[in-house]
Design brief:
Helices cover 56% and strands 0% of the residues. By secondary structure, the chain is mainly α. The chain is elongated, with a radius of gyration of 17 Å. Residues 1-5 have low confidence and may be disordered.
Length: 79
């Protein structure tokens, strides 16, 4: 049986799930970056050398995707 883009199973569904997951982590990374930049401004800090977070087992967050999103969003910033 041939799969098409509108089907709920098969490779296309896996791709859609991965894209949704990556967007979830990117949104979280964006919130982290925004929060840290706000705190830097409040405290008159010029640079932050490290940001630590813990990802719990039941959070449905993919740590590698979160780290990738953070790295992308912090390029050319003081983070």
């Amino acid at each position: 049986m041939e799969q098409n883009a509108g089907s709920r199973t098969g490779p296309w569904n896996e791709v859609k799930c991965r894209v949704k997951a990556a967007m979830h982590e990117l949104s979280i990374a964006d919130s982290i970056v925004s929060t840290v930049l706000e705190e830097m401004k409040k405290r008159s800090w010029q640079k932050v050398s490290a940001v630590g977070i813990r990802v719990g087992e039941l959070t449905d967050v993919v740590p590698d995707a979160l780290e990738f999103g953070y790295e992308v969003l912090t390029r050319d910033t003081p983070l």
